[in-house]
């Protein structure tokens, strides 16, 4: 998994997800764990329609409480170690690209 070295390297979909949040879509039928014939836990994996991040959630039944969430990110999504990008940073990068496209026309 390759990390970004700056937001200037990020693809458009990565910047959109960092600004808007991911566009989750249910990817699989859940794996279920049964106790005495009843579902007590199930696990679903969701895929982001834009950036291809994956989220696997373990959910308790019947409360539907999320017990665990595991994330996997595509190459070029994560910030460099020790760096944290804010949503506004992604918005600023998108804005800069939009303005530079305008200036070249
Ligand atoms: Zn995404």
Structural commentary:
This protein has 105 residues and is α+β, with helices and mostly antiparallel strands. 25% of the residues lie in helices and 31% in strands. It has one domain (7-103). The protein is built from two helices and five strands; from the N terminus they run αβββββα. Strands 1, 2, 3, 4 and 5 form a five-stranded antiparallel beta sheet that branches. α1 packs across α2 (87-103). The longest helix is centred in the C-terminal third of the chain and has 17 residues, at 87-103. The N and C termini lie far apart (36 Å). It binds zinc ion (ZN).
Please give the largest β-sheet. 5 strands, antiparallel
Please report the number of helical segments: 2
**Low-pLDDT residue intervals, each spanning 5 or more residues:** none
Mean pLDDT across every amino acid position: 95
Give the strand tally. 5
Beta-sheet strand percentage?
25-35%
Helix content: 10-25%
Using only CA atoms, what is the Rg?
18 Å
Attached small molecules: zinc ion
Q: What is the chain-wise order of helices and strands?
A: HEEEEEH
Q: What form results from the Cα inertia axes?
A: elongated
Structural class: alpha+beta
Count of discrete structural domains:
1
State the end-to-end distance: 36 Å
What is this entry, summarized?
With 105 residues, this protein is α+β, with helices and mostly antiparallel strands.
